[in-house]
């Protein structure tokens, strides 16, 4: 029913957070959906993770999409840029009728471009800046 993202620096921190969520959920009579629960190690070397909920090991994945962001284990933004380029192109094409309308001014078309196309393309830049920061500077 609810989605959450947990961020940790180490495997042990990841397990501790997972245990706390599992325990607290149980106290509230909630269950973690094991089919939807995954692990993504955004990593600088160690990609071996054994995080468990009870006796069940969570699946380690290579990438996922969260709030429109394509997040990959190697911190590469290439897939996200490709995805955003495709979305922006789709929006751009969808506005073609409006842009070809002779009654719509260039100023209005410019505003539409900035609001609907550029916003789709550049959304999330700050997220990648955060991921690329040194973990010591994040705190």
Descriptive notes:
By secondary structure, the protein is an alpha+beta fold. The protein has 2 domains: 61 residues, no CATH class; 64 residues, no CATH class. The chain is built from 6 helices and 6 strands, in the order H-E-E-E-E-E-E-H-H-H-H-H. The radius of gyration is 20 Å and the shape is elongated. The model has no long low-confidence stretch (mean pLDDT 79).
What's this, in brief?
With 139 residues, the protein is an alpha+beta fold.
Biggest beta sheet summary: 2 strands, parallel
Question: What characteristic shape results from the CA principal axes?
Answer: elongated
> If helices are DSSP runs of H or I spanning 4 or more residues, what is the number of helices?
6
| Count of strand segments | 6
Low-confidence spans: pLDDT under 50, at least 5 residues?
none
Q: How many separate domains make up the residues?
A: 2
- State the strand order across the main sheet: 1-4
Rg is: 20 Å
Mean pLDDT: 79
| First and last CA, distance | 30 Å
Instruction: Give the structural class.
Output: alpha+beta
How much strand content do the residues show? 5-15%
Helical fraction equals 40-55%
| Order of secondary-structure elements | HEEEEEEHHHHH
